[in-house]
UniProtKB/TrEMBL annotation:
Protein name: Putative biotin ligase
Annotated BPL/LPL catalytic domain residues: 59-252
UniProt xrefs under CDD domains: BPL, HTH_ARSR
Listed Gene3D superfamilies: 2.30.30.100, Bira Bifunctional Protein, Domain 2, Winged helix-like DNA-binding domain superfamily/Winged helix DNA-binding domain
One annotated Gene Ontology cellular component of this protein: cytoplasm
GO biological process: regulation of DNA-templated transcription
Enzyme class of the recorded protein, top EC level: ligase
One Pfam match: HTH_11
MF GO annotations: ATP binding; biotin--[biotin carboxyl-carrier protein] ligase activity
EC number(s) given by UniProt: 6.3.4.15
Swiss-Prot/TrEMBL keywords: ATP-binding, Ligase, Nucleotide-binding
Highest taxon listed in the record's lineage: Archaea
InterPro entries named among the record's database cross-references: aa-tRNA-synth_II/BPL/LPL (IPR045864), ArsR-like_HTH (IPR011991), Bifunct_BirA (IPR030855), Biotin_CoA_COase_ligase (IPR004408), BPL_C (IPR003142), BPL_LPL_catalytic (IPR004143), HTH_11 (IPR013196), Transcriptional_repressor_C (IPR008988)
Length: 315
């Protein structure tokens, strides 16, 4: 109902009487007033004038449920979105509800109190950033789950580069997204599966959107810092989720080779001499390629070795 009222106010762009709205959507004028009150509480600035009615002055730039659902044009991703002002971790939240949710449900939060990064690290999650987890249920064997990380980093990098041509975002293996060599986003993929079947995959993406430098490490940046202006969280989420939807559909159609090709086109790691600190070992060599599950193929002296996870630095 609220989104219908918004639609009417938006289309009109001027004052619309409570009576006109009530007729158009078939509810009482008192009910219209109640919804308008609720919308104001959600951050919509709606002016009202006696004898003229209501006028939408400004929509909030917060991830408000139906604001995004109204704007979003997707088939699978974000058909249901759960919004939070604060959670411990959107990945935790997503895992709690994953079994009951459909493929493509998304959890979004404006901040996290216990954001988690790769390899047991903390992911500092202040206000200004946006924290998103995707619940995915593709029909694939568990060993292919890392491919969803490729899908996710590709979707993010493509959506960033479509938002602003000058950004030139790149993917640092395995799944960091960088702008001018500085980290703007990290991805944490978690899997629930038995031997041959996936129950669900949760892909968590943290993006430094409007984060200020004092809330970032030296090696980090934010979209606001790069674009030198505030970035609308709703517009960003629209662009990211729509791109995610199209890359994910491509993936479900079996087009992993195309996804890998595009991932490589956007890679900041391939072709460079790198040092990789793994869990137990450190490798140094030329980053030659990735395999179809996203493992890095490293040329070390005359041998090629596959590395499945680690932290990359340039040599
Ligand atoms: C990394 O670079 O180490 C990965 C960081 C992943 C952070 C995101 S924020 C949304 C989701 N919820 C979490 O607790 N972590 C991921």
């Amino acid at each position: 109902m609220k989104s219908k009222i918004l639609e009417i106010l938006e289309n009109k762009g001027n004052y619309v009487s409570g009576e006109e709205i009530s007729k158009e959507i078939g509810i009482s004028r008192a009910a219209v007033w109640k919804h308008v009150k609720k919308l104001r509480e959600l951050g919509y600035e709606i002016d009202s004038k006696t004898n003229e009615g209501y006028k939408l002055i400004r929509s909030p730039d917060r991830p408000v449920e139906f604001e995004l659902e109204r704007m979003l044009d997707t088939k699978i991703i974000g058909k249901k979105i759960l919004f939070f002002e604060e959670v411990d971790s959107t990945n935790n939240k997503a895992k709690q509800i994953a079994l009951e949710e459909n493929d493509g449900t998304v959890v979004v939060s404006e901040m996290q109190t216990s954001g988690r990064g790769r390899r047991g690290r903390e992911w500092h999650s202040p206000k200004g950033g946006v924290y998103v987890s995707f619940i995915l249920k593709p029909n694939i064997p568990p060993e292919k789950a890392p491919q969803l990380t490729l899908v996710s980093s590709l979707a993010l990098v493509e959506s960033l580069n479509a938002m602003n041509n000058g950004l030139n975002a790149k993917i640092k293996w395995p799944n960091d997204v960088l702008i001018r060599g500085k980290k703007v986003s990290g991805i944490l993929t978690e899997l629930s599966a038995d031997m041959e079947k996936i129950n669900y995959i949760v892909v968590g993406v943290g993006v430094n959107l409007n984060t200020d430098q004092n809330n970032l490490p030296e090696t980090g940046t934010s979209l606001k810092l790069e674009m030198k202006k505030d970035v609308s969280v709703n517009l960003f989420l629209k662009s990211f989720l729509e791109k995610y939807d199209s890359v994910y559909q491509k993936y479900l159609d079996g087009d992993i080779n195309q996804i890998i090709k595009l991932w490589k086109d956007n890679s900041d790691t391939l072709g460079k001499n790198v040092k990789i600190i793994g869990i137990n070992e450190t490798y140094e060599g030329l980053a030659k390629d990735i395999d179809e599950n996203g493992a890095l193929i490293l040329q070390v002296d005359n041998k090629e070795i596959k590395v499945y996870s680690g932290d990359v630095s340039l040599r």
